[in-house]
Amino acid sequence: MRFDLVDLRLFVAIVEAGSISRGAEASHLALASASARISGMETALGASLLDRGRRGVIPTAAGRALLHHARAIGSAVERMRGDLRGFATGLKGEIRMLSNTAALVELLPAALRSFLAAHPDVDIDIEELTSADIVLAVAEGRAEFGVVANTTDLAQLETIALLSDRLVLIAPNAHPLAGRAVISFAELIDEPFVGLSAGALYSHLADHAARLGRRINYRVRLRSFDAVTRLVEAGIGLGIVPITAAKSCRMGSVAIVPLLDEWANRQLLICASDFTALSRHAQLFVDEIVREAKEDK
């Protein structure tokens, strides 16, 4: 059974894309070459790795086992590259991390600026996802670490606390509630809202509405905080967002009112399967994020 790194990376790309053609494109391989590699892997293993259907491909039981090991091997190779960087010339390091919107807006820009200035030979691949998706991806080895809110189940991941990120109400300036100094969630429940379509914050707010015996009246649901803030600015409805996202609104375009509820006090965390197993560059970047968070407190 001889699988090389190209085979393993291709297989991971295909499963994540749900398509052999898209996985081949992501791996910079011709479709015919990618198909031949997958067929060769299945022949060597003596079992099918992918269930092929009209809507794409999904891994079989054998494919899921291979996927787990392929991701672990890929992470080990990246750690090896980072550790050997000090002994090689011209070898660039790379960090793959995930972030929720709040951290990407407020915390990471300053950390990125200082880290990349000090490490010009390191590239950082950041993908923006919900906290729940980040926890799943880190647990599966699809990223070295992520920055999340503590409103999601962190499973067995290790965490480092960063800073608080309070949830606030954003309202058009003409709205009757815009003049409030603070407000409780219960006072808002009958208002029309603009919010996220899914994710940890969506579930978090839905749970607290259910405790009041109510459902949030979403007029529009969207996929990003930026889109939510723009529609609140346009007067479509109210929004509940992290203070970091509220600060991205155009100056004076909306009123920002803190929520009184204790659960509105969120904490941003860094999560990883094992911080000691991170690549050298990833460990250095985690240290920089922590340092930046301490300065922001």
What do you see in this structure?
- This protein has 297 residues and is an alpha/beta fold.
- The chain has 3 domains: 5-69, Arc Repressor Mutant, subunit A, CATH 1.10.10.10; 92-164 and 267-296, Periplasmic binding protein-like II (D-Maltodextrin-Binding Protein, domain 2); 167-264, D-Maltodextrin-Binding Protein, domain 2.
- It contains 11 helices and 12 strands.
- A 5-stranded mixed β-sheet has the order 4-3-5-12-6, sandwiched between helices.
- A hairpin with a 2-residue loop joins strand 1 (50-53) and strand 2 (56-59).
- Helix 1 (5-17) crosses helix 2, helix 1 packs across helix 4 and helix 2 packs across helix 3 (31-45).
- The chain is globular and about 70 Å long.
Topology:
Blueprint: H1 5-17, H2 20-26, H3 31-45, E1 50-53, E2 56-59, H4 61-84, E3 93-99, H5 101-106, H6 108-118, E4 122-128, H7 131-139, E5 145-149, E6 158-164, E7 167-172, E8 192-196, H8 200-211, E9 217-222, H9 225-233, E10 239-242, H10 243-246, E11 254-258, E12 267-272, H11 280-296
Parallel strand pairs: 3-4, 3-5, 8-9
Antiparallel strand pairs: 1-2, 5-12, 6-12, 7-10, 7-11
Helix-residue proportion: 40-55%
Can you count the helices?
11
- What about the largest sheet? 5 strands, mixed
Q: What structural category characterises the helix and strand content?
A: alpha/beta
Using only C-alpha atoms, the radius of gyration works out to 22 Å
Question: Which percent band covers the strand fraction?
Answer: 15-25%
Topology-level CATH name of the largest domain: D-Maltodextrin-Binding Protein, domain 2
CATH class of the largest domain: Alpha Beta
Shape: globular
